[in-house]
Design brief:
Layout lengths: L2 E9 L3 E4 H7 L5 H4 L6 E4 L6 H10 L4 H6 E7 L10 H8 L7 E5 L5 H15 L4 E10 L12 E11 L4 E3 L4 E4 L5 E2 L8 E2 L1 H23 L8 E4 L4 H12 L3 H14 L3 H4 L6 H12 L8 E8 L3 E9 L11 H5 L3 E3 L1 H8 L4 E2 L5 E2 L8 E7 L2 E6 L1
Parallel strand pairs: 2-15, 4-5, 4-6, 12-13
Antiparallel strand pairs: 1-7, 1-8, 2-3, 6-7, 8-14, 9-14, 10-11, 13-14, 16-17, 18-19
Length: 386
């Protein structure tokens, strides 16, 4: 049975910060961001936008009423959870009016969670061929004003409908995972922002890739030259490029080809920033919508990495007619976002919801987007769908 990605959608907040402006405000050479990170803009989410609203928006863009009837599982991969108990998938299930007889769960393992969701969805479809699974990767990366990771922040969500006989990508049965108990990036409950050992984390990202790829080759017999393109987790775009260089350094022809495809695969990541669990799938969407070289049948290699650390290599091939299920004007839409000054970004992105002694939100801003957090009552989050 062929199982894979039938539809894919994306949502980002309507605000954006130019990293050249951020560099000027922080007295940093703009090329440190533009060339050193390969990042140029950052999506900025207001307090009324979170993983629920962004995830619902990404899914709403691709789902038909028939899809909502057939979906019997919703999986949200995130590390930006808004509740220690209730899954974001449950909120999204209600906002989208999906079939009530569905399983709704949330998966956490740093930036790897949505990939785990994808593999679980594939296993579920294998057992229930007529069902569909909605996998959502939704995150807001926030490190603090003037922090070392400030320029790599971002916000957004990817939604993928997984089914039998998919219209975009058929997943192969070749996954290879690796787990390492390390502390390269972690988020203690008592801390507002993540803790990061930056140099160690980038080293682990690359070493996990090279060692897992060696095991992948041993198990599958596949070579890097067998793939038309490679999509990687993109904490910042330069890191993904270094990953490709690390495993393709001895094959210049393949390296050049994969590098060309990689530049197409980071068009969106460069202007959205890090969206944690969704970064690898945003890169895949960017590749599909910006490459003129891909064709049906092409094999794509994926490298998912979540700090802590869990990584996975897997692959798939493109389905005939996949181009008809994309949004070719997405870059134009992203370019219509509202630009922010550095001062406005600091006020918007780092605003915190104030709750009084009764658990009621105080002076929550009005948000006119399709999905928004509109209130907190007795410590319960209240969302609105337009």
């Amino acid at each position: 049975m062929n199982i894979g990605i039938d539809k894919i959608g994306f949502a980002a907040p309507n605000y954006v910060l130019d990293l050249a402006d951020l560099a000027q405000a922080r007295n940093i050479d703009p090329n440190k961001f533009k060339l050193g990170l390969l990042q140029s803009q950052m999506a900025v989410a207001p307090v009324t936008q979170d993983i629920v609203t962004l995830g619902a928006q990404a899914a709403q863009a691709i789902l038909s009423e028939k899809d909502k009837e057939q979906i019997d599982m919703i999986i949200v991969g995130t590390e930006s959870s808004i509740d220690q108990s209730k899954a974001a998938a449950v909120f999204i299930h209600g906002l989208l009016d999906i079939n009530p007889f569905a399983r709704s769960i949330e998966i956490k393992e740093a930036c790897y969670g949505a990939t785990a969701g994808l593999i679980l969805a594939k296993t579920h479809i294998a057992q229930h061929p007529n069902s569909k699974v909605l996998v959502i990767a939704s995150d807001i990366a926030k490190y603090g004003i003037a922090s070392a990771g400030e320029a790599t922040q971002g916000a957004g969500a990817i939604a993928m409908l997984i089914s039998a006989d998919p219209s975009i990508l058929i997943l192969h049965n070749d996954s290879v995972c690796q787990t390492r108990d390390i502390m390269d990036f972690w988020r203690p409950n008592e801390d507002k922002y993540p803790r990061v050992n930056g140099k160690f984390s980038t080293e682990q990202y690359t070493d996990c890739l090279t060692t897992t790829f060696a095991e992948y080759q041993k198990r599958t017999g596949k070579k890097l030259a067998d793939f038309a393109a490679m999509c990687l987790h993109i904490p910042f775009s330069k890191q993904g490029l270094k990953g490709i260089q690390a495993i393709a350094q001895e094959d210049s022809k393949t390296l050049n080809r994969l590098t060309e495809r990689f530049q197409e695969a980071i068009v969106y990541n460069k202007i959205v920033g890090n969206i944690y669990t969704g970064s690898i799938f945003l890169s895949f969407l960017s590749l599909l919508e910006n490459s003129q070289s891909l064709k049906a049948g092409d094999n794509i290699l994926f490298y998912s990495y979540g700090s802590g650390a869990v990584c996975e290599l897997f692959s798939g091939h493109l389905v005939s007619g996949y181009q008809q299920h994309l949004q070719p004007d997405r870059l134009h839409t992203l370019n219509q976002r509202t630009p922010l000054t550095v001062e406005a970004y600091e006020a918007l992105f780092f605003e915190e919801i104030q709750v009084d002694e009764t658990g009621q939100a105080v002076d929550l801003p009005v948000d006119e987007t399709d999905f928004a957090l509109v209130d907190i009552q007795d410590h319960k989050r209240v969302y609105r769908k337009k």
